What we know:
Radius of gyration: 19 Å
CATH topology: Rossmann fold
Shape: globular
Bound molecules: NADP nicotinamide-adenine-dinucleotide phosphate
Helix content: 40-55%
CATH architecture: 3-Layer(aba) Sandwich
Amino acid sequence: MLKTGISKILITGASSGIGEAVAYAFSDFKCQLFLVARRQEQLNRVAESCLKKGAPQVICQKHDLSIPGQGTVIVQECLKTLEGLDILICNAGYGIYGPTINISPDQMSRIWQVNYQSGYESIHAALPYFLSRREGHIVLVSSVIGKQAIPFSATYCATKFAQVGLGNAMWGELKKHGVGVSVICPGATATEFQEASHKVENQKSTSWGRAQNPMVVARAIVRAVQQKKRETHLTVGGKILCLLERLVPSLTIQAITWILNRRQTTTKTDTNDN
Length: 274
Ligand SMILES: NC(=O)c1ccc[n+]([C@@H]2O[C@H](COP(=O)([O-])OP(=O)(O)OC[C@H]3O[C@@H](n4cnc5c(N)ncnc54)[C@H](OP(=O)(O)O)[C@@H]3O)[C@@H](O)[C@H]2O)c1
């Protein structure tokens, strides 16, 4: 599917972190890129680096994927300006940390739209094109949290679980039509994700061990496309968590809950001390 000097790639959330790294990884294959995010200056910076790395054409489009329908619009624009699409990478996303009682239905709707629904819109818009050519590849950047639920991240978990379900179901549907689907489940990655995530007051974000370099995730995404991998798990901690969830699900969620409750208590004590 990945053809050096030919492939056309749409990447959402390409202004920083994993999306930016993915843009660089595909630039090495001289791919044409269509980059989407809200921050135009950041996108321009990434585009300049991609051109230096060898991408022959880079289009940057400022879009807010929290607006319903934008996922469809970006695919239509990509098909028009690049005159095609080979690989669609649904990566844009953010987190919300806090007790579910403090997270409003509107906040849930917004995170759902950005993390899941905009990707679904893009996939739905790209599928007729992929199916007519009997080729194409869809990548969904989910998370290890899409495999193992974490308390105080319920809304984020819901979007990431949904991506895993969607990706695996479509993998089975589309395989015989020549269209590949890969779900990527990174663990902690050193990006702007923690700063960009919305936190309820005094809520600590969940950090599990050392964060990996986003380039590691980007290379795994390239491999997943090349080898048509269904699901990719990254970081040792993430892999162990998924294994424990499969072997001892009840014990795993109880242990995670105990650790997180302890961390929250410590944070509250620290805050009271100040
Ligand atoms: N970092 C981690 O530890 C980790 C672990 C597992 C999975 N992931 C997943 O990896 C993906 C990328 O995250 P990251 O770690 O690279 O974080 P990041 O550096 O914060 O990147 C998030 C990207 O999403 C874009 N984005 C956010 N809201 C958007 C909106 N409303 N419209 C358009 N674009 C929007 C951001 O661009 P603008 O702000 O310019 O719009 C940015 O380019 C996410 O789906 C995340 O869930 C991250």
